[in-house]
């Protein structure tokens, strides 16, 4: 793959990432992946892995905050119930 082809690949990938669907990006990368230089393939794999880890971490944090919120609501519910009993 020439430098010009690689530059064109990157430009199109950025465009698809910003404006296309995940499926379009995946299809585009899968099509050109075998033709990419080894260094570019490694970079794509690393970035994909890094993004997946970051996404998984964000999901985990959201779940944790959700559990904390549910626990707080449960504590508040118990407090209200106790206050009703003492009235």
Structural summary, described in words:
It is rod-shaped and about 80 Å long. It has three helices and no strands. The chain has 87 residues and is mainly α. Helices cover 89% and strands 0% of the residues.
Brief write-up:
The protein has 87 residues and is mostly helical. The protein contains 3 helices and no strands.
Overall outline: rod-shaped
Percent helix range: over 70%
Strand content: under 5%
State the major sheet. none
Number of strands: 0
Q: What's the Cα radius of gyration?
A: 24 Å
Order of helices and strands: HHH
Q: Distance between termini?
A: 79 Å
Count of helix runs: 3
Helix/strand class: mainly alpha
Mean pLDDT, as a whole number?
Answer: 92
- Contiguous uncertain segments of 5+ residues: none
Attribute tags:
single chain, 87 residues, mainly alpha, 3 helices, rod-shaped
Compile the SSE list and pairings:
Blueprint: H1 3-19, H2 22-32, H3 38-86
Helix pairs in contact: 1-2
